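Following up on my earlier message about adenosine-5'-diphosphate. Here are the inputs again, as you asked, copied directly from the submission form:
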Amino acid sequence: MAGSGSAHLRGDDALLSVQDLVVEYPTDAGTVQAVSKISFDVLPGETLGIVGESGCGKSTTGRAVLRLDRITAGHIRFGAEWIEQADGKRMRKLRREMQMIFQDPVASLNPRRSVKDIVVEGLAVTNVPKEERATTSASVLEQVGLSGPRFADVLPRQLSGGQAQRVAIARALALNPRLLICDEPVSALDVSVQAQILNLIEDLKSEFDLTVVFIAHDLGVVRTVSDNVMIMYLGKVCEFGDAIEVYGNPAHPYTRALLDSVPLTDPEKGFAGPALEGDVPSPLAPPSGCRFRTRCPRAQERCAAQEPEMREIASGQFVACHFPLVGEPAGTDVADRAPVLV
Ligand code: ADP
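Thanks, got it. Here's what our run produced:
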């Protein structure tokens, strides 16, 4: 079922396969082209990082996989099942296996329920017998580092941001999902807490045998957790590939610009390269050809006339660019610009 721009799809082994996904939102001002024919897949046990500036369609992609928004076109396979046409009843069942955690943990938790009850209530949709739910809740809360009565009976507003995110993670994992979609899960947290939550997700990933999609606007955050990364710009995939390759040898000028705009570890050094100029154009009327061309230092006539197809530029690294960067590795500092996992 693979269509155009899907050279990087790896076939039936993937747990999640998204093919030619289009999501458009009709508004009074016109049609917002939030996601425009993107394809990617995630193998079992893998973490895919999805990165791009705000408004590039990352959340829409995550929500589309769970069918939380209406899909305009495209195909989504989860396990052995094509789910783009699955009805509401089937999706409610499938969403136990595909859990999502969000940027604002406090807002995602019921403010009137205690921590313990939030997790217990989540279990209502599972086969866990009623009398076992409190035990399961306590056990999963312990796994996320919130053990004991000290936490069980408190309300979400009494928790720090990091603790609230731990509760949201516990509630998701209590359902024993196969796929966890993390939508900017650390963006609202202090830098010191970010590393703790990233560590936690990494630990739980192996304990729970999880496959993870990790969405972030910050390349630094995604690097530490991702096997593969997918760089999105204005509803399109620019680059997809092995995280080490993409971070070490970014091929798309947009990936390079994103890497250059991450602050260096040594604050005195500032940034690795020039800042990205201008804003992302309106998704109501994206530029013709390559959507990044209006901000791209390498753009030429062809970029306006013809949309670049995704092609393999190095083993396991794919880029949609007519004039990709070759042999211009990122500086060594780039590799160090991330919260340190311990
Ligand atoms: P990101 O997660 O990369 O910040 P989003 O997926 O949230 O991007 O949004 C992609 C684009 O779709 C943005 O231009 C956003 O304003 C628009 N968008 C998202 N949801 C809606 C909606 N419900 N109605 C109209 N436009 C939307």
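One observation from looking it over: Confidence is low (pLDDT under 50) at residues 337-342. Hope that helps, and feel free to reply on this thread.
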